[in-house]
Amino acid sequence: MKVSNVSEMRAMDSSAMVRFGIPEEILMENAGEGVCSVIRNEIGIVGKKFIIFCGLGNNGGDGFVVARKLFSNGAPVRVVILGDGSRYRGAAALNLDIVARLSIPVQEIHSAESIKTALYHSDVVIDAIFGTGLARPVEGMYRDVIQLINGSRRPVVSADIPSGIAGDTGKILGECIRADFT
């Protein structure tokens, strides 16, 4: 297996879109399907309630794809956006719009306190907060949410990489998700 650094992964995504004409939406769909495949094979979907934490970038868009796919398989799903959902662009905005049209519950939060109850009424956590491009320490609400997730004792599946880990070095940037699967 080839191990790639962050700039190589970005170059592969760019090449897929520019050189081969693969739309960003397809790349996001494939990433979301990869997460769902892990969930199906390692945890299961039937009888489980899912909470999906989405950051404001494309990793959050991957989370919206996961929400759609789990919902279409009959699973109860709740999406939690960390911040202002109007900031999404491109494929992430498109997938958020689809989630809204499907009437999947979506909650924007600005503090960790507001999601404690929803977290503890869920069986499985999906981490789509930060992707491989994170290069700064995790602080504020993001740190608080990550600590809450880690303390929940729920299985956690991270899209791409556990939020809070530097993609190039593997170093923890202040606080990170302790994922069971990525």
Task: Summarize this structure briefly.
The protein has helices spanning 6-18, 24-42, 58-72, 90-101, 116-120, 140-150; strands spanning 50-54, 77-82, 106-109, 124-128, 156-158.
Describe this structure in words.
The protein is α/β, with parallel strands linked by helices and 182 residues long. It has a single domain (6-158), classed as YjeF N-terminal domain (Rossmann fold, 3-Layer(aba) Sandwich). The chain has 6 helices and 5 strands. It has helices at 6-18, 24-42, 58-72, 90-101, 116-120, 140-150; strands at residues 50-54, 77-82, 106-109, 124-128, 156-158. It has a 5-stranded parallel β-sheet with strand order 3-2-1-4-5, sandwiched between helices. Helix 2 (24-42) packs across helix 3 (58-72). It is globular and about 45 Å long. The model has no long low-confidence stretch (mean pLDDT 94).
